[in-house]
Each structure stands twice: as structure tokens, then as C-alpha cells.
């Protein structure tokens, strides 16, 4: 800062005015405690005599060093938020999600290997000429499949839990209860139902019709299909089994005079029974 030789003292609002009676230094020797400005002196100043606080002389800068690479064994210390946190192999939830992804990929691959089959919207009846149809993944997992006109039903879960029931209220084997305390396959009035929300727990089910009327299959979307009644001593059993993430419906002929036990044995159904509570030491 250049200090004038004759500063004005009659203006009190000046911030940098010189107090009256203060001896003025030479302009070349002006210095402050925090800022050192080299004066235009003829004698060169030594580097040791410069101000230790701040100087305006440019200093040599060092080239930036590349950041050191962190090894895989190093782990961040403290709290780490977001996706930067490493996923531990022992994390139970991560293992569960990885298993579900692998299972879904295997199911999709299994469905891709199937031969082409018509959908439920392309047929009006399952019979001995057109014996198979396949639902889409959405149709197989939404709502409830309603089978009307069914006299008896048998089911098997993925855990090989097998049971059966009739429209008259007789039951055999073991029911399969879902997470919502609802039967996976069972009767509601005179209609047999499959809870498609929990379809991944189902392995297969058969529906037997001993009446003279046709069975009907209806989905939540409104699509339906009919299964004709017994003719010429042959009845058609509706087989519903899950392949991957889709359901396939088949019309299988059996003799009309076979009882339910023989029909179960033909499709390899063996009823399971739940042990009484006393067997568990309760």
C-alpha cells in the first residue's frame, strides 16, 4: 500500500488514515505484520530475512503424486454409506437374493426349452384332440384359478405334501397352507380353487369330474376353457402342473369306473399324513 507523503487528517471516515503525530516511514520500507512486500532497495535481501508469515514471491510447487492403489484386503474404516460398502459373502440377505435370481434364471431357461403350445385364449375346450394348453407367466401368478363342476381334487406341493378333497366335504392327506393362512388348493363351496399368488409352492394338481356336465376353468382375466364330461366309458382328468414359472393344463383320459384311489395311483399321488401333536412331545 502506498502511503501518501502528506496524508489528510481532516477526514475521520477514512479507514486507512494516518493518526496525527505518527512518524511516517519511507515508502520503500512499508511493511505489515501479516504481509511482506519487498521494497525497491538497492541492497538485495537475503532469503532468511523474508517474513515468515506470508510472501508474494512465487514458490516452487511439487508435481501431484498419483493416488496409491488400495488392495483388496483393505477395508474402509468407520461408517460407509451407500453402494461403496463391500458385500460380504456371509450376508444372509445377499445370499437369499442371489439364490432367488439364480432360481428365476433357471426357471426362465426351463420354459424356453418347452415345445410351443396354445394359450387359453386360443382354445375353447380341452379334449382328446387338443389335450394341452399353457398359461403365460402373468396368468399363472395373478388371482385365483377357479375349476367349476369338479367332483374331486388332489394336490402335491413342491415339498411333496399331498392331499385330496371332494365336493361333498371329504378330505384325505394333508392340506397345504399358504402364508395368508389359506389353502393352496381346496374347495370354496362347490368350486375348486388354486391360489395363484402362491403358485411357486404348487407342483401339480388333478381335477376329477364324475358328473354328466362339463368342467370349466376360469382365470382372473376372464379367460375360460371347458373340459367335456365322460363319454364311452372314458373320463377326462384335468392335470395342472407347474413348469418353471408357468402352468400347463392337460386333458388325461382314464376309465370312467376307476375310483379316486386308482386315479391317484395312476398319477403317482400318495397321500401324506401329519403326525399327531403327541408325537412331538407336546
Total of helices: 2
Radius of gyration: 44 Å
**Percent of residues in β-strands:** 15-25%
Which H/E pattern describes the elements? HEEEEEEEEEEEEH
> Biggest sheet: strands, sense, closure?
7 strands, antiparallel
Enumerate the spans where pLDDT stays under 50 for 5 or more consecutive residues.
Answer: 26-35, 47-51
Q: What's the pLDDT, averaged over the residues?
A: 78
State the distance separating the first and last CA atoms: 97 Å
Helix content, binned percent: under 10%
Structural class by SSE content:
mainly beta
Spatial ordering of strands, largest sheet:
1-12-11-8-3-4-5
* Shape annotation: elongated
Give the beta-strand count.
Answer: 12
Describe the fold and architecture.
The protein has 282 residues and is mainly β. 10% of the residues lie in helices and 23% in strands. It has helices at residues 92-112, 260-266; strands at 132-134, 144-148, 152-157, 162-166, 171-173, 185-188, 191-195, 202-208, 215-218, 224-227, 234-243, 246-255. The strands form two sheets. The protein has a seven-stranded antiparallel β-sheet. A hairpin with a 4-residue loop joins strand 4 and strand 5. The relative contact order is 0.12. The model is unreliable at 26-35 and 47-51 (pLDDT under 50).
Amino acid at each position: 500500500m502506498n502511503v501518501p507523503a502528506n496524508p489528510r487528517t481532516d477526514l475521520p471516515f477514512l479507514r486507512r488514515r494516518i493518526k496525527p503525530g505518527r512518524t511516517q516511514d519511507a515508502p520503500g520500507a512499508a511493511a505489515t505484520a501479516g504481509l511482506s512486500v519487498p521494497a525497491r532497495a538497492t541492497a538485495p535481501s537475503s532469503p532468511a530475512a523474508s517474513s515468515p508469515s506470508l510472501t508474494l514471491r512465487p514458490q516452487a510447487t511439487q508435481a501431484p503424486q498419483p493416488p496409491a492403489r488400495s488392495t483388496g484386503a483393505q477395508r474402509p474404516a468407520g461408517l460407509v454409506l451407500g453402494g461403496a460398502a463391500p458385500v460380504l459373502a456371509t450376508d444372509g440377505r445377499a445370499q437369499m437374493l442371489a439364490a432367488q435370481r439364480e432360481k428365476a434364471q433357471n426357471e426362465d431357461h426351463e420354459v424356453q426349452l418347452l415345445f410351443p403350445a396354445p394359450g387359453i385364449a386360443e382354445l375353447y375346450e380341452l379334449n382328446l384332440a387338443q389335450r394341452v394348453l399353457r398359461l403365460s407367466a402373468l396368468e399363472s401368478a395373478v388371482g385365483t384359478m377357479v375349476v367349476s363342476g369338479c367332483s374331486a381334487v388332489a394336490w402335491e406341493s413342491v415339498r411333496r405334501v399331498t392331499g385330496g378333497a371332494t365336493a361333498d366335504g371329504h378330505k384325505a392327506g394333508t392340506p397345504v397352507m399358504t402364508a395368508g393362512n389359506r389353502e393352496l388348493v381346496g374347495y370354496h363351496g362347490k368350486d375348486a380353487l388354486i391360489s395363484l399368488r402362491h403358485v411357486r409352492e404348487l407342483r401339480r394338481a388333478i381335477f376329477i369330474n364324475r358328473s354328466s356336465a362339463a368342467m370349466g376353468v376360469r382365470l382372473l382375466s376372464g379367460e375360460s376353457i371347458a373340459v367335456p364330461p365322460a363319454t364311452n366309458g372314458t373320463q377326462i382328468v384335468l392335470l395342472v402342473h407347474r413348469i418353471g414359472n408357468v402352468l400347463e393344463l392337460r386333458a388325461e383320459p382314464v376309465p370312467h369306473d376307476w375310483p379316486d384311489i386308482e386315479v391317484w395311483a395312476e398319477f403317482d399321488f400318495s397321500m401324506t399324513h401329519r403326525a399327531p401333536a403327541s408325537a412331538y412331545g407336546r
